[in-house]
Amino acid sequence: MSATAAIAFTLLSPTHLSTKNNSKVLFSPLLPPNVKTTISLRRFLFRVQYGSPKRSSTFTGFKPFSPPVMEWQDCTVKRDIDVPVAVAYKCYSDRESIPRWMPFISSVKVLEDKPDLSRWSLKYKAFGRDIEFSWLARNMQPIPNQKIHWRSLEGLPNRGAVRFFPKGPSSCTVELTVSYEVPQLLVPVATALLPFLESLLVRGLERFATFAESSLAD
Fold first, then answer.
1. Domains by residue range for the chain, with CATH
2. What is the Cα–Cα distance from 194 to 8, expressed in whole angstroms?
3. 177 to each of 15, 28, 59, 105, 164, how far by Cα in Å?
4. How far apart are CA 5 and CA 33, in angstroms?
5. Quick one: which of 118, 137, 145, 167 is 20 to 30 A from 156 by CA?
6. Mean pLDDT throughout 148-152?
7. In the chain, alpha helices (H)
8. Own/partner long-range contacts of 94-102 (Cβ < 8 Å, ≥24 apart)
């Protein structure tokens, strides 16, 4: 479910279009395609990775660069489903079936020698852009019929959980939370993107409800 994090990361990241005379032309997918900013490549790399350099009060040179401050962003949705909680939990535990209800996930492959690890691939089109990502995730120790949770091991930093709450013998509530890291400077933009990301997760849970309810007929 770190797909939402991947989409958010892509939308918040600049795209490098070309390099000329030690400069790069950049644009953000949140800006119109004709709005571009040309900046020094060296200055851009320093500012993104370490922040703006500041001279020390002595003549010994520059102060050490500091990495950008990162902040976790959470996106949570929930839905009632007309299946027993054990059925919903079993369906969601099948990671390789997730592309059947999450259309932007192209594949999930569980590692044969390490079944707690899985390789995810995402393909999605948003704001006129084709987005592709892959990452390795570890499933943490689950709580049967209550909680499935994970965290990424490489690539985009993300984590998340699916929680299951019984409503009766034949229905339950499924709550999905996805968390991802963004630079603190971009938190306002990430907050503005939340409705779009929530809509992706809501559509996924709607499809999951259909998937889980159809499994009762099998």
1. 3-9+68-215 (3.30.530.20), 13-50 (no CATH)
2. 9
3. 28, 26, 50, 16, 12
4. 23
5. 145
6. 93
7. 3-12, 41-50, 85-93, 187-215
8. 95/139, 97/211, 98/1, 100/207, 100/211, 101/204, 101/207, 101/208, 101/210, 101/211, 102/1, 102/3, 102/204, 102/207
- The rounded distance, in Å, linking the Cα atoms of 178 and 129 is 22
List Cα–Cα distances, 91 to 84, 129, 212, in angstroms.
11, 31, 6
Helix (H) or strand (E) holding 73, with range, is strand 70-81
Q: Alpha-carbon distance 87 to 50, whole Å?
A: 48
Whole-number Å distance between alpha carbons of 200 and 81: 18
Residue 71 CA: distances (Å) to CA of 77, 81, 182, 183: 20, 33, 6, 6
How many angstroms separate the CA atoms of 91 and 172, rounded?
Answer: 13
126 token code pair: 């948003």
Residues 18-75 have pLDDT tens digits of 334 443 333 344 434 433 333 333 343 334 444 444 444 444 555 566 777 888 889 9
Q: How many CB atoms lie within 10 A of CB 161?
A: 18
